[in-house]
Amino acid sequence: MQTKIQTLIQQGLIWHGQTTDTQAAALSTGFKQLDKVLGGGWQYPGLHEWQLQAPFSEQALLLPLVKQAVQHHQPVFWINPPAWLSAAGLHYYGLSKSMQIVIQTNAEKAAWAFEQVLQTKNALALGWFEQKTTTAQCVRRWYKASQTGQMGVVLSEPTVNEEARAYSNRLRVKMTTTGVTLDLLKRKAGWPLENVALQ
User: Fold this and answer.
1) Are the C-beta atoms of 48 and 167 separated by less than 8 Å?
2) Residue 190 to residue 37: CA distance in whole angstroms
3) Which of 47, 57, 128, 160 is 20 to 30 A from 136 in CA distance terms?
4) What is the chain's mean pLDDT, rounded?
């Protein structure tokens, strides 16, 4: 019989601040300092949340991730992105021969589509969702789907309520005069950190 704490851990409601998952692989973020503080990079499988204080501030993090997916011959699913993908931009970054799928739909269908992509085991799922639509229950379903061997990123606005969610990592992306900095709100490799500069 499981204890109450074991049940909460399995549900993703309790986080081990100083433990790392030795089973999980990691994809490089493209930034050595960020890889170091995240315990090697983005956990794979895993579900990550990026809270954006400014529109399109996520581009510095997206490009290295998308390039790695393409190198592994994985399609990239863009679910409700804030702008259409540019063919010229994809060509500029050497991604013109990759499979990029854009899904634009309402919030409920987008959440369902994101979960389905996470269950495919061979794609990168990028979803733009408002905080009010990403309930703790919804995030738990996504996290469970990602654990089949997949990686997903949820991009949203900063949250006012820091409710616990079953993300592998949660970070806030900030634009400063010196570039992009991150607040790591939750990370499997340790305690939260503030003002990690992307260099």
Assistant:
1) yes
2) 8
3) 57
4) 87
